[in-house]
């Protein structure tokens, strides 16, 4: 794979753009054995054997019994099932879902699909997540049906602090841990427990199956309700018992998921390699502290922190000029998105400050050294403490 079109190929030195994210899922060969099992079983969905096996591997990698994992059709459907199970919307006065605005739109979308209205609370400047301690003073708690903290860019949430919040307030908590599977797996004990953790296995997350998700929760009663909610409200009999949806994982996605587990160690090693290369280059450029990626956050994100909004604009300009794609993953916050602009929120000073200076830069398990160097050079041309020339000499290897 050559990402830089060499001089001459296009007549001039015209580098091909480096995509901000190039997902890498198991190839056809890796998936084939599982597809053959589907051909043999002729079970295609409805809690089939592959989804069951996938749940087992999910549970195992997060250190819980197989019954504590539920495979879902995507992260959003997992969130909806968890909210429906824990916070039935029938409770008249409690119609709000408290969540950060510093997230992907799906958090708010899921709450809305459950008949709740998002209320955006500000984040902690260090963890970039909701602060359970501070939230105790949130003025809308008596109207709140559920709190949905988000694991920012996949940095997992502390189970014990949020359990304490639940006990104090009696308000159920659902973790939007969509991007957090990989980091959680490194130390599941502090992050997995009674509070459901909802994961996304969307292709762009580091553990991807295409479209898919999972919920892990160490509480049998909550699991039973979520299993019911994800399948038309059925539990055993064909009798709809509760508000629900169809959010089950089908056997084909489970096949990809199982192949992804087979290759997971190799993929994580590749992600780790890209992370170290990036770190080394940013360190040489004097920008180590500005850079964030795996294993602090999910390997599907590489983030550069600008000093302020002005520098972010300058960085985006430099990236545009050098053919480096970038993405503002959480945009300016969900409260800035058209559909959610009318939603209630508190003052979101920290959210706005942090959103204003974060840029997602290119990342992929097989991102080349050349590409990494090009990204770092472009960043250094704006923010570097050492001259770009110095870096260029070092980087010709
Ligand atoms: C990816 C993501 C989701 C949505 O997951 P899907 O599997 O795409 O439905 C939800 N919340 C956050 C924070 C995400 O990053």
Q: Helices and strands in order, then pairings?
A:
Blueprint: H1 28-41, H2 49-61, E1 69-72, H3 75-86, E2 96-100, H4 106-113, E3 117-121, H5 132-135, E4 144-147, H6 159-169, E5 175-176, H7 181-186, E6 197-200, E7 213-216, H8 220-229, H9 251-262, H10 264-284, E8 291-292, E9 303-305, H11 309-322, E10 344-345, H12 349-355, E11 358-360, H13 369-383, H14 388-394
Parallel strand pairs: 2-3, 2-4, 3-10, 5-6
Antiparallel strand pairs: 1-7, 6-7, 8-9, 9-11
The chain binds pyridoxal-5'-phosphate.
Verbal overview:
- Helix 2 runs parallel beside helix 9 and helix 3 (75-86) packs across helix 4.
- This protein folds into two domains: 28-262, Type I PLP-dependent aspartate aminotransferase-like (Major domain) (Aspartate Aminotransferase, domain 2); 264-390, Aspartate Aminotransferase, domain 1 (Alpha-Beta Complex).
- It is built from 14 helices and eleven strands.
- The chain has helices at 28-41, 49-61, 75-86, 106-113, 132-135, 159-169, 181-186, 220-229, 251-262, 264-284, 309-322, 349-355, 369-383, 388-394, and strands spanning 69-72, 96-100, 117-121, 144-147, 175-176, 197-200, 213-216, 291-292, 303-305, 344-345, 358-360.
- A four-stranded mixed β-sheet has the order 1-7-6-5, sandwiched between helices. Strands 4-2-3-10 form a four-stranded parallel β-sheet.
- The protein is an alpha/beta fold.
- Residues 1-12 and 386-397 have low confidence and may be disordered.
- The structure holds pyridoxal-5'-phosphate.
């Amino acid at each position: 794979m050559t990402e830089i079109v060499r001089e001459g190929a296009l007549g001039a030195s015209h580098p091909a753009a480096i995509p901000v994210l190039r997902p890498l899922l198991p190839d056809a060969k890796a998936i084939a054995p599982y597809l053959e099992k589907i051909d043999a079983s002729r079970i295609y969905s409805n809690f089939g054997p592959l989804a069951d096996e996938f749940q087992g591997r999910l549970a195992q990698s997060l250190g819980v019994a197989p019954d504590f994992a539920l495979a879902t059709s995507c992260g959003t459907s997992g969130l909806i099932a968890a909210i429906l199970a824990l916070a039935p919307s029938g409770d008249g006065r409690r119609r709000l879902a408290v969540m950060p605005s510093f997230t992907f739109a799906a958090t708010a979308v899921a709450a809305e699909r459950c008949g709740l209205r998002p209320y955006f609370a500000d984040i902690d400047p260090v963890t970039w997540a909701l602060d359970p301690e501070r939230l105790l003073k949130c003025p809308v708690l008596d109207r709140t049906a559920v709190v949905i903290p988000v694991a920012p860019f996949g940095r997992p949430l502390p189970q014990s602090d949020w359990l304490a919040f639940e006990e104090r307030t009696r308000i159920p908590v659902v973790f939007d841990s969509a991007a957090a599977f990989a980091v959680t797996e490194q130390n599941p004990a502090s992050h997995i427990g009674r509070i459901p953790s909802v994961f996304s296995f969307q292709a762009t997350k580091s553990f991807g199956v295409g479209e898919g998700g999972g919920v892990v929760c160490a509480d049998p009663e909550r699991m039973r309700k979520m299993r019911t909610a994800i399948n038309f409200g059925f539990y055993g009999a064909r009798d709809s018992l509760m508000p629900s949806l169809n959010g089950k994982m089908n056997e084909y996605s489970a096949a990809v998921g199982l192949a992804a587990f087979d290759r997971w160690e190799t993929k994580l090693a590749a992600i780790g390699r890209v992370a170290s290369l990036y770190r080394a280059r940013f360190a040489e450029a004097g920008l180590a502290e500005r850079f964030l990626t795996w294993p602090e956050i999910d390997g599907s994100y590489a983030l550069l922190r600008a000093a302020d909004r002005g520098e972010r604009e300058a960085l985006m300009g430099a990236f545009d000029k050098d053919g480096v794609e970038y993405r503002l993953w959480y945009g300016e916050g969900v409260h800035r998105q058209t559909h959610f602009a009318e939603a209630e929120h508190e003052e979101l000073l920290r959210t706005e400050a942090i959103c204003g200076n974060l840029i997602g830069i290119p990342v992929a398990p097989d991102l080349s050294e050349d590409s990494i160097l090009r990204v770092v050079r472009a960043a250094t041309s704006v923010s570097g403490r050492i001259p770009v020339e110095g870096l260029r000499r070092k980087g010709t290897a």
